[in-house]
Amino acid sequence: MLLGFSALLLLGYGAVGFFAPTVPADIAGLVMTNGNAYAEVGGMYGGLQSAIGLFCLIALLRQDYYRPGLALLGLTMGFLAMARLFSAWMTAAAITTYTYGALAFEFVTATLALLAFLSTSNDSA
Questions:
Q1: Residue 116 φ then ψ, to 5°
Q2: Residue 124 lies in a domain
């Protein structure tokens, strides 16, 4: 269920970032001032999130990818959360509910994925 929900969310948000990078940029409060910014947001919010979502979907559908999918989800969400928390802590600027919501989602998803990973064996799914 966690892999399916994550696949749906990441593929959906990734598609938006891929085809309309201004949407996630606006949600995050980012101002894109040149073509590099559009390429960066499109790549990270569109390409990377879509790829992770697609792998979660594959892991949901193929038993031999189940544990690697949980590991990928746990590690990516965990490191996203840690980097986001560290960056938020390092700035004197105010953060909004966007950052708090993203942190909550990432920490909860990482924890659930890693717990699920640890509770399954290599030959089960």
A1: -65, -40
A2: no
The SS3 of residue 25 is: helix
Range of the domain at 91: 2-119
> What percent of the chain lies above the pLDDT cut of 70?
98
In a domain, 6, yes or no: yes
Enumerate residues 6+ apart whose C-beta is below 8 A from 53: 6, 7, 8, 9, 10, 11, 12, 13, 14
The whole-angstrom separation of Cα 92 and Cα 108 is 26
pTM: 0.90
Distance from C-alpha of 49 to C-alpha of 118, rounded to nearest angstrom = 24
Q: Give the pLDDT confidence of 66-86 residue by residue, as tens digits.
A: 999 999 999 999 999 999 999
**Which pLDDT band, with edges at 50, 70 and 90, does 122 fall under?**
confident
Determine, yes or no, domain membership for 125.
no
**CA atoms 23, 94, 84, 33: torsion sign:** positive
Per-residue tokens: 109: 């998803």
Number of independent structural domains in the chain: 1
Q: What tokens were used for 18?
A: 């891929």
